[in-house]
């Protein structure tokens, strides 16, 4: 797997401006919408049980995040994921803090049955999701991405999906081949919901080109790694990082990955 | 209709600091509150069915936005809008993505019966609201403001309200006379919920001076056009646009519209 | 009471990275999470009735804010506060706009019975909470902190808790001794939910060292006063204030309070 196609994915996304339906947590909604707009996608945040199935069918992809989950949202997510499965719309699962409570574990077990195209989490979440006992601690990862590589491959093979693990080194795997991505910046864990925004970006890239979800997922991770690196060079702290990061996402061009 | 009174509206708003009750979507809450504070208004976000009627009566105006609507919020919005109607408090309707789903169309039909003082939307939303079939696509507009001028005039006349249409060119109409506003910046559609914030700003201006809702609405649009232009000159992308835009709103003075 | 221990509290917080469970309003969630991360704490926003008690037991502290309260959230807050009381986890109450509606007054009366370790509000809210009739006006304070000093002391003594009053001059009291803090910046009331973020910061400091809640509370207020002052010097308005404030929180070191 090479990074040659990543630039093509960004070209695609700019051409398609994929309508990306996000059912995400309250903390991440604004920042995820701004991340999608900066990248060139078209975000839509809506979650009413009366309309999610109808809207999923208009969308290029669905991104689901359980960060601030409650019963009505879990119900809508299940309706939306079922509609996505029925219509062949790719959907992304972000299992925030799945290891932290029994409620999250039960919900994620139900969601895995609805066949996400991609699962995006930190190492701790991927380990939990793979059934390995791992005490959760909010949305922060307590193990390295490498530790989660085996779990990610197992999960990807069992589910027949892509698994993306965020960390100092990112890992994207389809269970057979894996891609490691380096980059980003030490300030990124000090800014809230960047991981949630990455899951939304994965949905946008996969929605823009559903034919190759593994390289589409890698393109989203690559955009974050590059924009994060650039923003980190500009920033004096996590406050100035955020606008610099959105600017950097906006300024990314497909040429960044063109071999010279 | 001239822009001479616009500066007077800003003077009024600065003097009155109108308490502006917003029942808006989760994505827009923080940015709308910051927009109102930067302008000099006093925002309040609350939506519990037990208290909205009581709070509407304390408020200068109510702003309603259906972006992330669900049944409990729709219920509270109806209570609040009814209380506003009963107490003569002006209220603004932002019919986000009304064309996208049947659920939104039904809800907006019910809300129109409660007589908003102003409707603020993009061209696509105003067309949908006027009953013209127009396939919605999230919160993004797919037709120009000019295309929606006829619809806006019809809607304003039927409803006896002001209609404001956001776009490259903004249109504000009472159904008989229309005002076109130029300005803003190409980055504005790349920042989420600026339109929602504009609806909140319209409520604040109309609340500060309910005697002339058409020029009050134009004043809000004018502030956004000017601040957007200034912020766009400062910004390197949508990330740096946002703080620059809030700063520019904060720095606006009534003199901006004073003839020299 | 001297400010000597404040630097020690920041050292503690940096060492412990206290997991701070926030059940807060929609407007404040993102900014409170970023404030906690900038300070060096670990935020977690979750509110489902099925999991809050379980999560409180994992957390160093709980922060409760009623800004956008509704019945399901009030229910979860009561479960979480009861779990905190049972497990000896300190919890902070931010009674946003308690004077504005009967619904908020009733809810706060119930929450006071669950024994918060700290109450953080503006002068108007502290006066209302102490039973002094004071017409509320959204989240904005309409009386000075000094006016609320007597109310704060009475409330602290009655409740056996710490009360922190935000304003131009901050007051922190245990009902017997009081500390006044100066600093901050005139732009701070023009940025939404800084007060809510301060309540979350108080929870983080008290969670990092529950043995001295009064100086821990003062440390949180002190960080805000200092970071606010620094950010105000950098900012051109409320938009640029926010990233500068987060950067300043991030750059604070325990040395700031070391006598030279």
Automatic annotation (TrEMBL), chains A, B, C:
The species this protein was found in: Vreelandella azerica
Pfam families: HK
Protein name as it appears in the record: Hydroxyethylthiazole kinase
Domain of life: Bacteria
Family stated for the protein in its record: Belongs to the Thz kinase family.
Keywords, in A-Z order: ATP-binding, Kinase, Magnesium, Metal-binding, Nucleotide-binding, Thiamine biosynthesis, Transferase
Function comment: Catalyzes the phosphorylation of the hydroxyl group of 4-methyl-5-beta-hydroxyethylthiazole (THZ).
Enzyme category, top tier: transferase
An example Gene Ontology biological process: thiamine biosynthetic process
Pathway noted in the entry: Cofactor biosynthesis; thiamine diphosphate biosynthesis; 4-methyl-5-(2-phosphoethyl)-thiazole from 5-(2-hydroxyethyl)-4-methylthiazole: step 1/1
EC number of this enzyme: 2.7.1.50
Cofactor(s) needed by this chain: Mg(2+)
Reaction(s) catalysed (UniProt annotation): 5-(2-hydroxyethyl)-4-methylthiazole + ATP = 4-methyl-5-(2-phosphooxyethyl)-thiazole + ADP + H(+)
Matches recorded under Gene3D superfamilies: 3.40.1190.20
Residues holding ATP: 120, 166
Binding site for substrate: 45
GO MF, any single term: hydroxyethylthiazole kinase activity
